[in-house]
Write a structure and sequence with these properties.
about 55 residues, 2 helices, about 45% helix, elongated
């Protein structure tokens, strides 16, 4: 999580929480879904696999 006061990352983000939203975002019309700083290659692989089933 990013702490805006200290301008530092306090811990590694929990990517598993984001995975469950990918399908919903796609259903709502999102067509560009990706990562940001501290996104892991594993998250991008899972994202790709989920979206391949939707296209």
């Amino acid at each position: 999580m990013y702490d805006a006061k200290t301008q530092k990352w306090s811990e590694k983000p929990d990517e598993s929480g984001l995975i469950k939203y990918i399908q919903k975002w796609h259903e709502l019309g999102a067509r560009l879904i990706g990562g940001c700083c501290q996104t892991s290659p594993e998250f991008i692989r899972q994202l790709s696999e989920i979206l391949k089933t939707k296209i």
